[in-house]
Amino acid sequence: MPAIPAPHRVGSADVIHHDGYDETIVSPFVPAIRTVSGARLVFVSGVTGAPVYHDHPHRREVFDTIPADIAGQVANAFAHLDLALAAAGARRTDVVNLVRFFTDVDADQDTVNRVQSEWFGGHIPTSTSVEVTRLATDPRLRLEIQAIAAVGAGE
């Protein structure tokens, strides 16, 4: 059995592995991340392929330009996550946790995992994926991503 690696620092957090870790397994998440003392936490509301700012109650026509395919929706969602992180003074590597809500995990998870891996460029946060009946914003949406980032310790 491979040795458990010591925690390694990524931004304002330590990536933690435990018994059973195998570096040859390709995974879109790590088991645990511990923030460093002094890090500020940034909580990002769920982002989707839809415009972040939209009317409530929802107006259906606002969502008519949302891409129907998951590749387009996940690209928009990560672009929206970039905007929120930047506004909060955070970077992609500061993200310590994602919660991903899918309306069809079987159809969409592989595409989302690929885009997420490219977007993070080697950084891997903790993550939970959940399948839901539908998302609240519009029934055409297939994915929502919520994030937590740890920013600024030791900087």
From TrEMBL:
State the superkingdom. Bacteria
Q: Which UniProt keywords apply?
A: Hydrolase
Gene Ontology molecular function terms on file: hydrolase activity
Q: Name one Pfam family in it.
A: Ribonuc_L-PSP
Keyword check for Hydrolase = yes
What the entry lists under PANTHER family is as follows: 2-IMINOBUTANOATE/2-IMINOPROPANOATE DEAMINASE RIDA (PTHR11803), RUTC FAMILY PROTEIN YJGH (PTHR11803:SF44)
Q: What is this protein called?
A: Rid family hydrolase
